[in-house]
Amino acid sequence: MATTALVRPKRGRMIAGVCAGLARRFGFKPWQVRTLFVLSCLLPGPQILLYLGLWLLVPNQRG
Description:
By secondary structure, the protein is mainly alpha-helical. It has one domain. It is built from 3 helices and no strands. Helix 1 (about 20-25) packs across helix 2 (about 30-40). The longest helix has 11 residues, at about 30-40.
């Protein structure tokens, strides 16, 4: 099984591509990761800060 690098795709992005990149990396559909993220925002915690950090740290897809 080949692993995919964690990158933010150029296509299929809604805001920054973080959820789409995570979905591609771990074999989920983007809507599933987005739904989990929105549901997790109902719980206390640093979800928004984690999203912003990934936005800054995860590179864009080349090509």
